[in-house]
Amino acid sequence: MNTKTFETENQLIRAAQAGDQQALRELVEQYSDTVYKFAFKVCRSEDDAEDTLQDAFLNILKALKTFNHRSNFSTWVYRIVSNSCLMKWRKEKRERWESFERLDNPEERIQDSYTHWPDSPAEALLSNELQEKMDEAILDLPPIYRLAFVMKDLEGLKMEQVAQALEISLPAAKARLRRARLFLRDRLEPYVQS
Amino acid sequence: MADELKERILNICSELGEDIDSADCKKLRQHVASCQDSSAFVDSVKKTISLYKAYGPNIDHDTSSRLLGKLGLD
């Protein structure tokens, strides 16, 4: 990752930890797009993504001095963003996923936060119906599973990083990913079958 | 295909290489290539992932400005 003023990201982080305002701003600017994209993929709503972005960075700056440079900074950031997402969901929407363990309640839908899909050639190929089904499916996926799916399959983190960010064991992270993939695939089955 | 078999295929991919396109997972798929249902299932999982990867907005200037303002860094 390039930095404007600091030669390495490590220097940037240490300066930010020392309270250097320019470093803090650069650090926020460097990670804001990553955090926003991640939040959007998880929340499926621009408003929720922005709320999560702001909450996450407030938490990141609050906890910045505790970052010990022994782990990857981006993984640490993902951990804080994930916790911000989970805190938000626990307050607002916990009841939504109570039936997930049975995976047998596809008719229950909460259609409260459909995504605005920006125009692009790739996206234009997707029908509105498919977009809605995709949003419904991922929003019906409990957050702990959704986070694993977004981190691994959409953001490209290594499985070990996913486990670290979610503060769970590697086998548990793999199990969550597996269930998320299966759940989403089954919900989109009519659209993804050959 | 039975749910148990779907779970097992994903489980093996995950345990071996995590990525559904990893080398070991590809070997597994070669092994089950003779099974049309299995191949179709793996392809459908890949297609599901690719659909979700197909979009994601970049942060816009206004959102970025509001963030910096919220953090007192504007």
What does this structure look like?
- The complex is a heterodimer of chains A (194) and B (74).
- Chain A is mainly alpha-helical and 194 residues long.
- Chain A has 2 domains: 1-93, Rna Polymerase Sigma Factor, Chain: A; 118-194, Winged helix-like DNA-binding domain superfamily/Winged helix DNA-binding domain (Arc Repressor Mutant, subunit A), CATH 1.10.10.10.
- In chain A, 66% of the residues lie in helices and 0% in strands.
- Chain A contains 10 helices and no strands.
- Chain A is elongated and about 55 Å long.
- With 74 residues, chain B is mostly helical.
- Chain B has one domain (3-70).
- Chain B contains 4 helices and no strands.
- Chain B has helices at 3-17, 23-31, 36-53, 61-70.
- In chain B, helix 1 (3-17) packs antiparallel against helix 2.
- Chain B is rod-shaped, with a radius of gyration of 20 Å.
- The termini of chain B are far apart.
- The model of chain B has no long low-confidence stretch (mean pLDDT 79).
Topology:
The complex is a heterodimer of chains A (194) and B (74).
Chain A: H1 9-17, H2 21-43, H3 46-63, H4 73-92, H5 121-124, H6 128-140, H7 143-154, H8 159-166, H9 170-187, H10 189-192
Helix pairs in contact in A: 1-2, 2-3, 2-4, 3-4, 4-7, 4-8, 7-8, 7-9, 8-9
Chain B: H1 3-17, H2 23-31, H3 36-53, H4 61-70
Count of DSSP E strands of chain A?
Answer: 0
What assembly state would you assign to the polypeptide chains in this entry?
heterodimer
Mean pLDDT of chain B: 79
Distance between the termini of chain A: 39 Å
How many individual helices of chain B? 4
**Total DSSP helices of chain A:** 10
The count of β-strands of chain B is 0
Helix content of chain A: 55-70%
